[in-house]
Amino acid sequence: MSRFWDIDAILRRWKYRPDMVRARLVRARDGRQVLQMRIDLGLLQMELVGRPDGRRPHGHESYLEYLMERAAQSTGRFVLSQRQCQEVDREFLQYHHRRLCWLALGEFRRAIADADHALALLDFASEHAPDAQWQALHEQSRPLVLFHRAQAATLYALEHKGPEAAAEEADRGLAQLQTAIALLGKQPGPEERLMLEQMERLRAWVRQNCQEEWLLQQRLAEAIAAEQYELAAKIRDQLRALHHSPPQ
Fold first, then answer.
1. What is the 3-state secondary structure (H, E, C) of the chain?
2. N or C terminus of the chain: which is more exposed, having fewer CB within 10 Å?
């Protein structure tokens, strides 16, 4: 019998939780950093850049990049083959898993990038689908990707640009989500309604932050003018706290 290295010790120390995404960054034996996601049957390990599985399909950074080159070289209408459809689905799922991990870790810029790649895959698949049924099936995934992107973009803006910019991202993200759901041509189901509710709650929370930040900035200016530096320090702490408590 061949000797295999099991991962029992890792799984015992890192318990699976069905109610949350569990992700972490770890250092591999060769020194590179990798991303791990705990799942019910074990764990997934992904690369931080490029394809999550670390492969370069046909020498390209992603399968999408390869397909775009093939389509550009085609003399007629480029239509995805069955094999290519399978590879599109495979790459889409990989970026889905990594996007979930970035969101769980608060790596919002990286989550945005992976969401953009997934949306580009959907756009390409829609344009070059082998039939209308396959196209419609894959469009069902667009609202979830847009939802994740809107969350990430809103929270990234909140961290780096402030509540006002975050409110604009929340408005834009909610509008895009509503449009994508409407284009499905059916009444929103439980999952779509939940995404809309959570996005509306995030938008309301960010708007509240805008109001609170304006009031705190006024109080801070008054405290500094009155040379009440201890009070000013407390107000600065309150301003920082505004950016680090998103709604659940």
1. CCCCCCCHHHHHHCCCCCCCCEEEEEECCCCCEEEEEEECCEEEEECCCCCCCCCCHHHCCCHHHHHHHHHHHCCCCCCCCHHHHHHHHHHHHHHHHHHHHHHHHCCHHHHHHHHHHHHHHHHHHHHCCCCHHHHHHHHCCHHHHHHHHHHHHHHHHHHHCCHHHHHHHHHHHHHHHHHHHHHCCCCCCHHHHHHHHHHHHHHHHHHHHHHHHHHHHHHHHHHHHCCCHHHHHHHHHHHHHHCCCCCC
2. N
